[in-house]
# Entry
Amino acid sequence: MLRLSADMNCNLAVPRHVAIVMDGNGRWAKKRYLPRFFGHKAGVDALVRVINACADRGVEYLTVFAFSSENWKRPEDEVSGLMGLVLVAVTKYLAKLARDGVRIVIVGDRNAVSDRLRAAWLEAETATQHNTRITLSVAFNYGGRWDVVQACKQAVAAGLTADQITEQALSGYMAMRHAPDPDLFIRTGGEVRISNFLLWQVAYAELVFTECLWPDFDVQALDAALADYAGRERRFGAVTAAPAGAGGG
Ligand code: FPP
# Structure
């Protein structure tokens, strides 16, 4: 990890797009002798805090990993608890998020979720579609490899020839096509891996890993991650730093 002193060429900009793996809910609950569900519940409250703090700091896009394609392998009661929690959270927070100017977009395979959850997602997207303060993308039943495969399938179905399949063309079929690539990728909970999140899009993201468990991730922890990002030099594969405002990732 390259760290630069203040007189060097630092990119002090706020990241346009922050992506977060919200890990550590289960351990947070265990430390308190509570069932894992309570960790996820506290995780929802942390998320609501972070959405507003990001918006206040000028982050335009926030993308969170709420349920991975692999999370179906968890015990049945935890999966159904999470599904129920998400439904309740949408009902509880939608009006507030809509009022706060948050646009909600769901990314992932909706086929496997219940009709009720699908309807709640649609309601959340429709109710907030014209909001512009920040775009919250919730990755749910999402996997980075799933996304690449579904994008390829769409490109083939649209009749693209091998020559027409370019990085730019494929990006247009990705589930995250509504957003620039993440500038900053944060993972809480101490694990140091990507875990199949936004594989295509994080190619040039700055990575920040923290021991902090997701329900404890507060405004100070967010600011520390943003400060870490601000101290990085982004080169996008070149020798010198990219010009200010270059790309979205
Ligand atoms: C990982 O912690 C966390 C999850 C699998 C779920 C994250 C989901 C939320 C915070 C709810 C999101 C809600 C909405 C409405 C978008 P873990 O269970 O793997 O924790 P551990 O590593 O400590 O076991």
About this structure: Residues 188 and 210 are 5 Å apart (CA to CA).
